[in-house]
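Reopening: Shikimate kinase still failing for me.
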Amino acid sequence: MTTFLIGFMGSGKTTIAKLLAEDFIDMDDVIVKRIGMPISTFFAEVGEDAFREIESQVLEELSQNEGVIATGGGIVMSEDNRRILGNADAEIIYLKSDFDTLYQRISADTTNVRPLFIDKSREELQEIFETRAPLYEAIATQIITISGRTPEEIIKEIRR
Ligand SMILES: Nc1ncnc2c1ncn2[C@@H]1O[C@H](COP(=O)(O)OP(=O)(O)OP(=O)(O)O)[C@@H](O)[C@H]1O
Ligand SMILES: O=C(O)C1=C[C@@H](O)[C@@H](O)[C@H](O)C1
Ligand SMILES: [Mg+2]
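Support: Ran it again with your exact input. Result attached.
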């Protein structure tokens, strides 16, 4: 069985995946290895479109895998990606949150500076969030509200 974690930047996909399975796969890490540079550098030097193509390719490959997979926050933007996720015999867990919580976390996370955080204003990022939110909801098989809850509380609910 495959478990995909989906959700906006900062929703805790990587954090929760790590707690669910030691040998989890983080799509962003797979992509960083493949492109040989940080995602923010790739966005600046090659562009977001090229990133999205690689992201789709990686998703296609990983959809054959077993185990826990943390996806990139933008995975739901492509119809192809949504089809791959929908066709995979997989659990798709949406880590749902309000925008303010996410923005606070993204701003505070100095170890992982997201390219969209650098490039966009708060208002632009909120617009992206509002476009994506219904897409995450639509493909999820389980929706977990994460605001105000610890990672331990969240994995307890996922396992229940
Ligand atoms: N339940 C939680 N409560 C408080 N802080 C959390 C929680 N889950 C994650 N965090 C913190 O929020 C930040 C973002 O978490 P994480 O990197 O796991 O998100 P992500 O969904 O993988 O983001 P991205 O899509 O950018 O990869 C980190 O600093 C992490 O420590
Ligand atoms: O939300 C997004 O569009 C992104 C989220 C990250 O996981 C990375 O995949 C990248 O920074 C793009
Ligand atoms: Mg992550």
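The beta strands are 2-6, 25-26, 67-70, 90-96, 142-145. If you still see a failure, please send the error message rather than a screenshot.
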